[in-house]
Design brief:
The chain is 0% helix and 52% strand. The protein has strands spanning 2-7, 10-13, 18-26, 33-39, 46-52, 58-60, 68-73, 78-83, 92-99, 113-114, 118-123.
Amino acid sequence: QVQLEESGGGLVQAGGSLRLSCAASGRTSSSAVMGWFRQAPGKEREFVAAISRVESTTSVTDSVQGRFSISRDDAKNTMYLEMSSLKPEDTAVYYCAARTLSSLAWRAEDYQYWGQGTQVTVSS
């Protein structure tokens, strides 16, 4: 089992920046790929970014390309999402996720472990 805990969410003005962290514990070797998803009120959970452990291959969804970046520090068992130039439409609960297979994935159902989420609110 892998336990995931997000932190770093909050309220920020449009154009501002935030850094989300996701700390993994437990059987961290099972977190071959870690990702970020978000869910806005009334909308489905959507993929934001993912990163693999072995090759540090990354994928970022088009809507945040150039504004968000994903990274991980395996020595600290922590993944990060650096968010800049935030827009009101980025407002959502951001979830950290992990999957045991080493290939990147973009569907929520492909991830086995989930954190509780952290709220990000961007005011206009």
